[in-house]
Structures are given as structure tokens and as C-alpha cells.
Amino acid sequence: MSTEQMVIELKSVTFDLISLLERETDGMRTLETSEYNRFVAEKSALSMQYEQLVQELRGRVDDLKNMSEDEKNELRELQALFQEAAKRNMRALKAAETTNQRMIDTIVRAVKSRANEQVTTYNRGGYANTPTSRGYSTAKNRGTLSISLNETF
């Protein structure tokens, strides 16, 4: 592939990445997990393609120096747009991560708080027994609460 073709491909991939990052950033609050997984897969593929093109172009310094100033400026502007979109996306992802962690911490605190309360048992008739009646000891037969959180980011 010629340097000119690689530059054209790099522009295309960069535009696609910018578009994807902006859509992901804008949809961060409303994305379903399956849709987010699709974004991640597409972002990964485009990032790998971008990195490969950049690496190959770094080996063609002389060809890049011979490009027109307009072409060089267009690449610079495109890279600046990409960097800004990536920064906005990173901030949105970090904010979502922080929010999710706070929510998980709140749930864990609530569960621990509830688990520390006195446990009530039920007899065969469905009536509540106190833990100390009918031979139950609070220390020995304290109920346990099992919770599992599925964290997928």
C-alpha cells in the first residue's frame, strides 16, 4: 500500500474512531450492556487498525515530509479532534465507573447493615419466631445473607 493510500486509510479510521467515541460518550447513560459490548469490540478493532497504520507511517518519514502542507494540516487537525474526543470519552467512562462503584458500595453497606439486624425465623405454619424462642440461639443460628454482584464494565 502506498503512503498516500495509508494516509487516506488513516483519515478514514480516525474519523470512524471519533464518531464511535462521540456516540459512546453521548450514549453512556442509556446504553444497554449488549450495545456497550458492541462499542467496546468496535473500538478495539478500530484502535488496532489505527495503531497499525500509525506504526507503518512512522517508517515512511521521507514520504510524509513530501506531503503538501494542506494535507499535513488536515492530518494535524484530525489528530487534535481525535485527542479531544478521546479525552471526553475517558472522562465519561471514569465518571460512569465512579458512579457504578458508589452504587455498589451503597448496596454492600445496606446489605451489611440489614444482615447485622436480628434475624427472624418462621415455623411450619408461616408464623414468625423470635430467634431466642423454641431453642434458637442468636449466636449459633444467626441467618446469613448471600449476595452476588455481577460487575461487567
Please, could you describe this protein's structure?
There is one protein chain. Helix content is 67%, strand content 3%. It is mostly helical. The protein has one domain (3-118). Strand 1 and strand 2 (128-129) form a beta hairpin. The radius of gyration is 28 Å and the shape is rod-shaped.
Order of strands in the sheet with the most strands?
A: 1-2
**Radius of gyration, CA atoms, in whole angstroms:** 28 Å
Number of strands: 2
Give the CA-CA distance, first to last residue: 37 Å
> What integer is the average pLDDT?
81
Q: Total domains, how many?
A: 1
Report the portion of residues in β strands. Answer: under 5%
Globally, the shape reads rod-shaped
Q: What is the N-to-C order of secondary-structure elements (H for helix, E for strand)?
A: HHHHEE
In the predicted model, the low-confidence regions spanning at least 5 consecutive residues are 138-142
Describe the biggest sheet?
2 strands, antiparallel
By DSSP (H or I, 4+ residues per run), the number of helices equals 4
Helix content class: 55-70%
Structural class: mainly alpha
Keywords: Coiled coil
Coiled coil: 47-88
Please give a handful of descriptors for the protein shown:
153 residues; mainly alpha; two-stranded antiparallel ribbon; 2 strands; 67% helix; 3% strand; rod-shaped
What is the topology?
Blueprint: H1 3-27, H2 33-58, H3 61-65, H4 69-115, E1 121-122, E2 128-129
Antiparallel strand pairs: 1-2
Helix pairs in contact: 1-2, 1-4
Short description:
The protein is an all-alpha fold and 153 residues long. It contains 4 helices and 2 strands, in the order ααααββ.
